[in-house]
Amino acid sequence: MSDINAIDMEVFNNRLLSITDEVMNTLIRSSFSTNIKERKDASVAIFDKEGRLICQALYIPMLLSGVMGGVETLIEKRGLDSIREGDVFICNDVYLAGGSHNNDISIITPVFIDGSLEYFIGNIGHHSDVGGVIPGSTDHILTSVFAEGIRIPHMRILREGQLDEDLLYMIAENTRDPMERILDLKVQIAANEQGANSLRKLSAEHGLDRVQRSMTDLLTYTERRMRQRLRELPDGEYTSEVWTDDEGVPGDRIPIRLTVRIKDGDVSLDFTGTGAQAKGAINMGYYPVLAAVFCGINMMVDPSIPANYGMFQPVRIDLPKGTLVNPEFPAAIGNREYSAQRVVRAITLAFAEALPQDRAVAPSADINTGMAFYGKRRNGEPFVYVEAVAGGVGATLYKDGMHGTQVGITNTSNTPAEPLEIEFPLIVREYGLAQDTAGPGRTQGGAAIIRDIGSLVDGVSVSTKADGKRSPAPGIFGGGEGGRASLEYHLADGTVEEIDMFIVDRIMKKGEAARLISPGGAGFGDPGERTAEDVARSVRDGFISEDFAAAHYPHARTKAAE
Fold first, then answer.
1. For residue 66, what is the enclosing H or E element?
2. Could you tell me which residues come within 8 angstroms of residue 183 by beta carbon, excluding any fewer than 6 positions away?
3. How far apart are the C-alpha atoms of 453 and 96, rounded to whole Å?
4. Which of 376, 434, 453, 500 has the fewest beta carbons under 10 Å from its own?
């Protein structure tokens, strides 16, 4: 094993990150869809010719699953010998191509140097619609992957440098906004070529052998760091149990049971006891589970460890077949991120038993509440607008949780009101922090978000779900649970309908609106230990009301009266 200089490895890793960030910035600046250019719902990664992840852009952890699965299964199913210089592959399918879900389309570009395949660069973008039964293609109530839009196995979108226009148009015309799909897919192809050129330049400057040795050393360095951090934790068995709100379709909640076993620098995650696969679309494929596991472990063990193949080596995962975390084909998987966030929650709770209290984190609004709207723009062209609404972050021993922040396996930006209202016949009626949604505790969870969007025309379809209403973020070490999600539908005459869980493809009239409140973050420690000054500040800043303070922090009122 070669001697590895930690400083050299950090410098080299950042050089690779500059390439992935360059590709990511090209995607964001050049894409035509709001989903990528505003919400940054995309990711980029570099792989060696063996398919080992070397580096990924610091954006959406969940999207790593689709491009990583795409590369690994491409090599497994096609073999390196079948790939020609100038070939570029497209894929999205969970069961056939290691995908994330059908909306996440991967473009995988083999990188040749002097006629030899040496690397892969892949990017993935969430396309707001890929066909299927429901506008936006993903909805909890769908019960088969065939209802979730077009399924793409590994296919050559470029064959030895020539774009397959027929394939491109076939994919696009199976969606509700074909021109947007065509333009964004062409941007994904072009962005990868930019990254491929940067990899060729890096190899020319430093020599191919040296770069590849540095990549191998980076993986070894990462594995060493991960094992060392795991050895700092007490060996033992740590368990947790979290729940979904339902089966995707209305029904019973499903448990996700996790046993974490740590021993001498290795860790295993055993999901035995997790409930059977859901009837609805909240099941998870293998690679989404993998992304959730490594997101959770990286967050709890050491967030500074590079996310690459080396980080995976000390980790083993047991996923019983036919369960929520390893479903049988053709189970629907479109809303897999809801369950993936629960996996991160389970990891957070299990590691809270193993970590010192000053490194534990209370669970957050890790549920990925989403909204989708479908209709026609003012020029008559179709649109599909989707939004993942952030929530409150869990508290830590010394700090309150952050307010209105994306956590866990997603890291998207919001769509600002101005471009949303310019591009679509919609209006943002209210967007802000929701009072009394922060979990009480010695330190307090973060506040949730209110997202209230109305239609300016007749005929817009809306779908959304109040996930987190039945399974809020649980507090730790005596802390209280975070606020629960809620959902309302506002009619044009001012009537308000309280919605239990779902709005599915409801056709809006002009002046109607959907109002969603996401969940809040959980509290950390006994609320009785929160200082009167901190309680008063939260009331003054509007995060909690006087009534909330009286119910959860009665000692603070007594002290103030003194």
1. helix 61-78
2. 31, 32, 33
3. 37
4. 500
- Among the listed residues 535, 533, 532, 488, the one whose alpha carbon sits nearest the alpha carbon of residue 512: 488
pTM: 0.93
Distances (CA, A) of 205 to 110, 113, 200, 372: 20, 13, 9, 47
Q: Which two tokens stand for residue 264?
A: 């001498």
Q: Can you read off the two tokens belonging to residue 221?
A: 């360095």
Tell me the residue type at 352. A
For the segment 497-548, what is each residue's pLDDT rounded down to a tens digit? Answer: 999 888 999 999 999 999 999 999 999 999 999 999 999 999 999 999 999 9
Burial 57-72 (b: 16+ CB within 10 A, else e): bebbbbbbbbbbbbbb
Q: Average pLDDT, stretch 395-417?
A: 89
The DSSP bridge partners found for residue 503 are 464
Mean pLDDT of the chain: 93
Burial of 423 (0-12, 13-18, 19+ CB in 10 A): middle
> Could you give the CA distance from residue 540 to residue 435 in angstroms, rounded to a whole number?
12
Cβ 137 vs Cβ 335: under 8 Å: no
The CA-atom distances, in angstroms, between 446 and each of 219, 327, 436, 499, 530 are: 36, 34, 10, 24, 15
For the chain, which residues make up each domain, given as ranges?
A: 6-222, 357-562
Could you tell me the two tokens for 4?
A: 């590895």
Spatial separation of the C-alpha atoms in residues 121 and 66, rounded to whole Å: 13
CA distance 498 to 180: 35
pLDDT tens, residue by residue, 180-235: 999 999 999 999 999 999 999 999 999 999 999 999 999 999 999 999 999 999 99
